[in-house]
């Protein structure tokens, strides 16, 4: 069996000749079915751009991104900023993707409710987003992505806007959710701690144009819990990855400083 996602010699440019930006690449990457891969890299190195290519929202300027898809809509995305509709109630937000996919309303409601229950929001289905905390809104966004039961879950800094405690709780919830159905996940974060806790593998990207400079397997067994942080191996891996990443973050800072 081939990989679930294969990126070959992918590059992406933005803009036209005079203000052309080389955002990403060349980048080669294979992600296996069921693998949880975290991507870290300096700001502006092309992480979101790559995720949008996997989602089919934009095309590479060169190279290819292939997905071994079994369904018409293989991916679902969770963004940083709770991209849920303020004018829709929680249940309708979670059902949104199912409505688009033509799932009958009754079945859609059942599925949406079951994912709301998994995320601890069973009693909030009639609430409007404005009445929810940040953590609850992000849970709604995650429930909406999971409800379509995507082959590949794409998460772009999904916990970045949350406070530290809420972030830890949602990390543990995501670990448990992943354990239940072991979907392929591509997860962007600025936190090495989060990347090591969640991932089977952590990819470190260079400053723009982003290339993959390291791919580290995370050795901790699953099911995994937050207390894996308290081990010497966790700290050692974090230190090792930070040495790689720091160099790229400094390169990025020098780059923006020189403009
Ligand atoms: N639609 C666009 N038009 C022009 N330039 C773009 C566009 N989208 C992204 N870029 C540029 O491409 C580069 C990569 O952007 P991208 O958003 O992928 O970075 P990122 O790694 O996700 O950064 P961050 O960590 O800050 O989210 C940046 O220089 C950005 O300004
Ligand atoms: Mg981004």
Number of domains: 2
> Judging by the overall fold, what is the CATH architecture of the largest domain?
3-Layer(aba) Sandwich
Averaged pLDDT: 93
Q: Assign the structural class, choosing from mainly alpha, mainly beta, alpha/beta, alpha+beta, or little secondary structure.
A: alpha/beta
Q: What small molecules does the structure contain? A: adenosine-5'-triphosphate, magnesium ion
The CATH C-level name of the largest domain is: Alpha Beta
Largest sheet: 6 strands, mixed
Structural description of this entry:
Pfam families: ABC_tran (PF00005). GO terms for molecular function: ATP binding; ATP hydrolysis activity. Residues 5-232 form the ABC transporter domain. The protein is of the alpha/beta class and 259 residues long. It has two domains: 5-74 and 154-257, P-loop containing nucleotide triphosphate hydrolases (Rossmann fold, 3-Layer(aba) Sandwich); 85-149, no CATH class. The protein has seven helices and nine strands. The protein has helices at 47-54, 90-100, 105-118, 134-147, 164-181, 192-198, 232-257; strands spanning 5-14, 21-31, 36-40, 62-67, 75-78, 152-156, 184-188, 201-205, 212-217. The strands form two sheets. Strands 5-6-7-3-8-9 form a six-stranded mixed sheet, with helices on both faces. Helix 5 (164-181) links the parallel strand 6 (152-156) and strand 7 (184-188). Helix 2 runs parallel beside helix 4. The longest helix has 26 residues, at 232-257. The chain is globular. It starts with a strand and ends with a helix. The structure holds adenosine-5'-triphosphate and magnesium ion. Magnesium ion binds at residues 47-48, 156.
């Amino acid at each position: 069996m081939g990989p679930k996602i294969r990126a070959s010699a992918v590059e992406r440019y933005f803009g036209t000749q005079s203000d052309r930006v080389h955002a990403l690449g060349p980048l080669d990457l294979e992600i296996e079915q069921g693998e949880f891969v975290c991507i870290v890299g300096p700001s502006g190195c092309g992480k979101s751009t790559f995720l949008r290519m996997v989602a089919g929202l934009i095309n590479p300027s060169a190279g290819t991104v292939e997905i071994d898809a079994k369904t018409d809509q293989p991916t679902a995305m969770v963004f940083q900023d709770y991209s849920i509709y303020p004018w829709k109630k929680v249940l309708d937000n979670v059902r949104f993707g199912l409505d688009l996919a033509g799932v009958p309303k009754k079945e859609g409601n059942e599925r949406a409710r079951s994912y709301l229950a998994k995320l601890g929001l069973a009693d909030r289905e009639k609430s409007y987003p404005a009445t929810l905390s940040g953590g609850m809104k992000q849970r709604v966004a995650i429930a909406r992505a999971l409800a379509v039961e995507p082959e590949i879950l794409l998460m772009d800094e999904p916990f970045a806007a949350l406070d530290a405690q809420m972030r830890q709780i949602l990390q543990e919830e995501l670990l448990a959710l992943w354990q239940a159905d072991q979907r392929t996940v591509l997860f962007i974060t600025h936190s090495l701690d989060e990347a090591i806790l969640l991932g089977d593998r952590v990819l470190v990207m260079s400053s723009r144009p982003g290339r993959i400079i390291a791919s580290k397997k995370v050795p901790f067994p699953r099911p995994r819990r937050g207390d894996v942080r308290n081990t010497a191996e966790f700290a050692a891996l974090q230190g090792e990855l930070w040495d790689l990443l720091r160099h790229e973050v400094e390169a990025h800072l020098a780059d923006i400083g020189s403009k």
